[in-house]
Amino acid sequence: MIWKEVGVPTSMRAQMVDVTSQVVSELASSGIKSGMCYVYVPHTTAGVTINENADPDVVTDILNGLERLVPLKGNYRHAEGNSDAHIKASLMGFTVAVPVIDGRLALGTWQGIYFCEFDGPRRRKMLIGIEGK
């Protein structure tokens, strides 16, 4: 298994950053043609997901939907004031896995990999793991 740490700077409190090209670049440099690619986010207030990357309104809708489900201000007990970010990150998840076939990520036509920031702006990181042959 090859692991690479990649920086992801964010510029807003809540945003989804398309990191597909960064993952594709790491896959290309690995030389792996068949296997699996994992993206892991080692933060408690950020996550990762796969969704449509053709229409930017999808990202806007996701962020707006999450804000309606888990508002910034609520009846939270966590003292740091970022409880909503912890909940949103847990809803999105911290890992995605994508098959590698013929040296390419087996994403669907409209799919991209998104780093999901919920407590920014910050300098974040993600781990990209690639295994196979």
From TrEMBL:
Pfam families: YjbQ. It comes from the Archaea. InterPro entries: UPF0047_YjbQ-like, YjbQ-like_sf. Transmembrane segments: none annotated. NCBIfam families: TIGR00149_YjbQ. Belongs to the UPF0047 family. This is YjbQ family protein.
